[in-house]
Amino acid sequence: MGxxxxxxxxxxxxxxxxxxxxxxxxxxxxxxxxxxxxxxRAMTKEEAGGVEHCIELIPSxxxxxxxxxxxxxxxxxxxxxxxxxxxQKIWIERLNYVIHNLDRLAMMKQDxxxxxxxxxxxxxxx
Length: 126
Known about the structure:
- This protein has one helix spanning 85-125, and strands spanning 6-9, 13-21, 25-34, 39-43, 54-58, 63-64, 71-72, 78-81.
- 9% of the residues are buried.
- The strands form 3 sheets. Strands 1-2-3 form a 3-stranded antiparallel β-sheet, with no helix packed on it.
- The protein is of the alpha+beta class.
- It is built from 1 helix and 8 strands, in the order E-E-E-E-E-E-E-E-H.
């Protein structure tokens, strides 16, 4: 396993930070994963190199790197380690909930956009 990470789940992104101890507890930003159209699943111990309670999170969209300087064309899987099977189930449930809500919002925006363009087209034909 790598360095200790703390995960912070928001409505559209999962942040990961590293605890640092400089003049009191602090968190150092290490990165984020955009959850829009992401996929999440539990990993077997064998898939995770012998480590139990891992989650694979695969963002579906490419974007700009953390410094907003380079376009990233490929996505990569992120492996999250959680402490227990119960935590694994909770994290997967919550991540899926956020992803589902983002998908639902995207569909609503797409529907509104297509209705708007359809009404604009009918205005031009009248």
